């Protein structure tokens, strides 16, 4: 029996590990997470305790439902509760993030929740808490329906729904992004990478991907530092190839040749062999071990592509797609 890591950052990988390796493994994952790294005591209602709780939830050591409860029980003054959005952008603290969540949970109207979510995600990005925040607000985000009334939040709602596995819902925001892009820089930025999420998730056939979308994305990516740009191109192409998606762009074969020709060794070789022998349990265990407790953006592109390919080979293509979308979004935040 292989020893899977006690902490897994990826929600998809955590769910997959519990489902495939069995209930015992799932319980063991949480048990190891809570014993290896003691969860923070949050009886004391301080910013410091809240920060520890956020860190534990972000790394997978604390269930999101527990952090939601902590946020809900945190004592706020009547003044804070009456104006949760006031000066929010000048106060990027755990207390403010808890207050924003409390404000969203007290709303019933999607537009009001979206207004809170927009600020919450703005505060989350510089703190490295984007994925955590999407997960926290997940129950609300999943209920959003693409509409003209919510078009102003499309650049956040669309990618967030893709991250949460709501692929069909996420796809429907594209028309609103295209509608407001001429006058909205956030929409333009999201739109340049939208085809990647659509292709990785499988909501669009590769033959329907617009060549101009790919060219626009390549131009955007290449404005970055060359090393970072090359990594994003390799990661995207290699993940698409691992999922059986082919693109008709000039640099496709050149970029792919480097990963197809690489030799594998160690546990990566074991993963490839297990996939060839249709050993689903073994593939999932090795995927968890290879990714480990690292944030997804730290996993080498070559390794991630091999993991996705192996998962797809053993009948877990949908999980592979969800993991790929998580990787793509984590790499962009």
Textual characterization of the structure:
The chain is mostly helical and 333 residues long. The protein contains 21 helices and no strands. The chain has helices at residues 11-21, 23-36, 47-58, 64-73, 78-82, 94-105, 110-124, 130-136, 138-141, 154-163, 167-171, 174-180, 185-192, 194-201, 211-221, 226-242, 252-260, 266-276, 280-291, 301-313, 317-332. The protein is globular and about 60 Å long. 41% of the residues are buried.
TL;DR of this structure?
The chain has 333 residues and is mainly α.
Which descriptors would you attach to this protein?
mainly alpha; globular; 0% strand; 21 helices; 333 residues
Work out the strand percent: under 5%
Counting DSSP E segments of at least 2 residues, the number of strands comes to: 0
Specify the biggest β-sheet.
none
Q: Residue-averaged pLDDT, rounded?
A: 89
Sheet/helix structural class: mainly alpha
Helical content (DSSP H or I, runs of 4+): 55-70%
CA-atom Rg in angstroms: 20 Å
Shape estimate: globular
- End-to-end separation in angstroms reads 36 Å
Order of helices and strands: HHHHHHHHHHHHHHHHHHHHH
Low-pLDDT parts are 26-38
Question: Helix and strand layout, with pairings?
Answer:
Layout: H1 11-21, H2 23-36, H3 47-58, H4 64-73, H5 78-82, H6 94-105, H7 110-124, H8 130-136, H9 138-141, H10 154-163, H11 167-171, H12 174-180, H13 185-192, H14 194-201, H15 211-221, H16 226-242, H17 252-260, H18 266-276, H19 280-291, H20 301-313, H21 317-332
